[in-house]
Amino acid sequence: MISIHLKYEIDADKLADFEEYGRRWIRLVNRFGGTHHGYFLPSEGDSDIAYALFSFPSMAAYERYRTDSTTDPECQAAFELARTTRCIKRYERRFLRPLDTGTEAPPAKTPA
Q: Dihedral sign, CA of 24, 9, 47, 36?
């Protein structure tokens, strides 16, 4: 599994536009086979920083999503929303590997 962490610098005066952008991408990432863990918007503290976190089963699945999103009309509309409203000033993308939680049963031991 690969998780993608995005840090956004947003225009605080265009928070409603960014919220709409986020709502669209949550649905789109899930439609493309990922799991969106949500957008995290400013509350207390910095008024212009937001985060998003989503996962795909593999880097190959993520790369398929990225390629397919370039021709998908709904994805293009979400990109256009950000471009026309200028709600996003910049963003950073990080790729993370989740730590195994250790909740899976250990492999069965074979008799000696």
A: positive
Q: Quote the CA–CA distance of 111 and 36 in Å, as a whole number.
A: 42
Which residue is it, tokens 């985060």?
Answer: 51
Structural domains of the chain in order of their starting residue, each with its CATH number: 2-96 (3.30.70.100)
For 18-56, how does the pLDDT look when each residue is reduced to its tens digit (9 = 90+)?
999 999 999 999 999 999 999 999 888 778 999 999 999
* Residue that has been written with the tokens 């991408």 in this structure: 25
Residues ≥6 apart with Cβ < 8 Å to 97:
1, 2, 3
- pTM to 2 decimal places: 0.82
